[in-house]
Design goal:
alpha/beta, Hypothetical Protein Ychn, Chain: A, 121 residues, 5 strands
Length: 121
């Protein structure tokens, strides 16, 4: 299995989970796994430029840095379209590496080419 998925459902409502999710995703991407972060529910807010800039949990790099390093390592950030639209967020203001997708894209990633484990934060 050469794929890995991290589903992040939190943003400023649980900065610890949002941060740890990107730490794990970064480790997977650095291990040459095809890695995606799927942002859903409140996690979609992380896809907006500037939103994560002031999130910095003790003991970790700033979330903005973790996200940028994840994308630099080849990771992709997939953003749940209905969750994003429900919150009235702008597709014109996405962080680098983010793509608005439907749930079918997540299912495809998790089930094709041998499947993928997925952890949720």
């Amino acid at each position: 299995m050469n794929k890995f998925c991290v589903n992040i459902t939190c943003s400023k409502d649980n900065e610890d989970k949002a941060t740890v999710g990107f730490v794990v995703a970064g480790a997977a991407a650095a291990s040459d796994k095809e890695t995606i972060v799927f942002l859903s529910t409140e996690g979609v807010r992380l896809a907006s430029k500037g939103y994560a800039d002031d999130i910095h949990e003790d003991g970790f790099a700033p979330l903005k840095e973790l996200m940028a390093n994840f994308v630099k390592a080849g990771g992709k950030i997939l953003v749940c379209s209905p969750c994003f639209k429900k919150r009235g967020l702008s597709e014109d203001n996405l962080v680098d590496g983010a793509l608005i997708v439907g749930g079918a894209k997540l299912v495809e990633f998790l089930t094709t080419d041998g499947g993928s484990p997925c952890v949720t934060y």
